[in-house]
Amino acid sequence: MIQILDSTLREGEQTPGVYFSPETKLAIAHLLDQIGVDIIEAGNPAVDNEIALAITRIANAGLKAKIGAHSLCRIDDVKKALDCGVNFLGVFFSVSQQRLQQEYNIGLEKAIEKIVEVITYAREQEDNLLIRYTPEDTVRSPIENVIEAASAAIHAGANIISIADTTGYTTPFHQNRSIYYYVKTLKEELAKRALYPQIEVHCHNDRGLALANALDAYRAGSDIIDVTVMGLGERSGIVDLAELLINLTDMVEGKTYWKLSCLKDLYDLVSEHSHIAIPPHHPLVGKNAFTHYAGVHVKAVSKNEELYQSLSPEILGRKSSFALGMQSGLAAVELALKKIGRNELVEDKDLVAKILKEIKAIAKRGTPIDIEKELPEIVERCNISLPITNGCKISV
Predict the structure, then answer these.
(1) Is residue 282 annotated as a catalytic residue, yes or no?
(2) Could you say which of 202, 204, 292, 297 is catalytic?
């Protein structure tokens, strides 16, 4: 069964300007746990004491999910992570020759020694600790370096190797640049050495392909996929939680256990405290995700929603709706009249046509028409037996 690691509280907080208080982080963690996320990466405690406090609170909250901390490849940083009481530790260190030379002035051999030292220390502290080693910028590093470092990390005590597409470099459409290639190659090469760690993927969205790459990784046999709420993270962020779950729900064999009805509450909470609005057209959780507008669409879904929906909003705890505006037709006006309790007006086809004409005129202002508030006023203006201009009465 594929596992989901949510990094909203770590990667997500690396979005410029985003800050979550310890109380907010705990609330987010509870919702993630309700949804059924397997691992909650709660932050890097070496960054700030408040982050360490938040991680500790989440680790002691009795959640079903494993609680993880992120750490540089330093024993002091690992100590800070383990002091928070986590049962998942992520350690990262680059094996790219360019990075090793320019950032650390060392070669691969020294880098592996450092990786082994830190992971060995972590394993000695806790037998049951899940340890992940990430070769930073995995997919732009020589695959030979990745295999050597991963092998050494596993022997030192790592359970998980993460393939990090740190810069959003991979694409499903290029044989040797696909995440599928990296997952398959790493699994096969490690298996030749009788090493069988879990394989995790961390896909950045710089080219808009994070979700596609994540699904490609699933197809290749990855065990864990990293996500954040709203796809938050460095630069263009990473894989969006809701988008991944809805796609995996169709792909995973057997019954999935994700409680998708909690997604909207989670996204609203993260949006509020990150001060980043959910785009109206965001799949699943956006305001318009299940809103129909064009006249042909509204007429069709009024009879059968499946005609223009492949997803049921009910699994997300939502309902379908429709909007009024320039694209509306008579069917939308009739539905709107029924919605505000004016069923008796639907049979007056001339009035319905006048209301539609007025709606189209108002729509030119470029903002949505509020059915509950504005439609009664439109009806009142158009339901008076006076000469009509632009579908409504002349001002008197």
Answers:
(1) no
(2) 297
